[in-house]
Amino acid sequence: MNLHTRGFFHYLGHLASAIIMCVLLCGTVFAQQPSLAAFKVDSLEPLPVVSIPRTPLPQVAEQHQFWDRNNCILFTAVAALSAADFTVTRDNLQSGGQELNPVTRVFGKSTAGLAVNFAGEAAGVVGISYLLHKTGHHKLERMVSMVNAGSSAAAVSFDLAHR
Fold it and tell me: 123, 102 in Cβ contact below 8 A?
């Protein structure tokens, strides 16, 4: 591995860490928590009690079904790019190349292990998306598929460029 390749993966690791921190700290992840602006920090007086009239809440339309058209397209892209990543990675490993992803490296000793890795990755994307869908985080639900498809596309491009 040359110096430019190491620098690229070093940069990619820092970028992935920054994206994960942004997702963990963003406000939409904690959308159900009360705002800190509602609390009086400068005084120790209790907040006044406000009575809210009891009126029925308006019916909220369901955001979308989990297996809607957009998710089907995204999951198809994830599956196709995972299959492409599997194929290119297997070919590179059989040609004497080396796996750079430490997680995939554990499974990359055999073709079956490599297939399990990429199939599990695609299944994990669907599972995480479903969890985010059920908790009402619909934008993050779709973002998981987009990030995975993008990273698989980048891996395929990198592998094809370094044959």
Answer: no
Phi, psi for 30 (deg, rounded to 5): -105, 40
- Contact in structure between 154 and 87 (CB atoms under 8 Å): no
26, 30, 35, 39 alpha-carbon torsion, rounded to 10°: -110
Residue 4 DSSP class: H
pLDDT along the chain (163 residues), means of 10: 58 69 59 54 67 68 82 96 95 90 89 94 96 92 95 93 82
Q: How far apart are CA 86 and CA 120, in angstroms?
A: 12
Residue type, 109: K
Residues 6+ apart with CB under 8 A from 69: none
Q: 40 vs 32, 69, 107, CA distance in Å?
A: 20, 46, 54
Query: Which H/E stretch holds residue 95?
Result: none
What are the tokens at 90?
């297997």
Predicted structure pTM score: 0.62
